[in-house]
Structure formats: structure tokens, C-alpha cells
Amino acid sequence: MNARQAFPPPVHVYALAHRCTTCGAQPGQPCDVPRKQAEIDKANAIRAQVGQPAMEPDPLRLLHTARINVGSRHRDKDIGKAPWPEDRQPGVRYDTLGEHWQPDQL
């Protein structure tokens, strides 16, 4: 692994690797969260009125809690199964995300 290929990937990457049980979003697709998106849009509209740039929302904020919980458990399992940092081999992936995440997406 090089410096760009962090292990473990962020929780939102793990969450996106699973289907959302709340809205039915498929792996790799964002959740359908109109109320959360409306809150973000409202805050950014206020920021625009006072001349401040729009803020990028935290990726977890645009996912349902059930999906985040599944992703968090998946991440914890990967961390538990991976070797200690000093024992890891360069270029070896220790996550179990499969095709839903490639290390160059960070």
C-alpha cells in the first residue's frame, strides 16, 4: 500500500458497499434522503446570502443510519482481521470491499 491507499477506508465507503435497508439504494448508490438534502440546501442558501461559500456535507450525513451501522460493523470486522500496521505487506489490500471500492478512490 502506498500513502494514498489508507487502511481502513472511511466508514462512508463501507456503508456505500451495502444495500440500504431504509430506502433500498443498491451498493455503490447514494441513499435517497430528501429531508437531509433539504437541510443542507437550506444552510447553503443562508451561507450564500451572507457571501460565504457553500459547505461540502459530510458523506455520512447523506446516508441512512441503518446503512451507516452496517458499514461500521463491516469496517470493524476488517480492522479486527487485518495484521498489525507494522506487519502489513506493501500493495496488499486488507479490506473486504470487493468491486465497490478501489484504493485510488480516496
In sequence order, what are the helices and strands, one letter per element? HHH
Cα radius of gyration in angstroms: 17 Å
Major β-sheet profile: none
Instruction: Tell me what portion of residues adopts beta-strand conformation.
Output: under 5%
Output mean pLDDT: 87
What shape does the CA trace take? Answer: elongated
- The stretches of 5 or more residues where confidence is low (pLDDT under 50) are none
| Backbone structural class | mainly alpha
Distance between the termini: 13 Å
Query: How much helicity do the residues have?
Result: 25-40%
Number of strands: 0
Number of helices: 3
Give the topology:
Layout: H1 11-16, H2 34-49, H3 65-81
Word description of this protein:
With 106 residues, this protein is mainly alpha-helical. The chain has three helices and no strands. The protein is elongated and about 50 Å long. The chain starts with 10 loop residues before the first helix and ends in a 25-residue tail after the last helix.
Tags for this model:
mainly alpha, elongated, 106 residues
Short note summarizing the structure:
This protein is mainly α and 106 residues long. It has three helices and no strands.
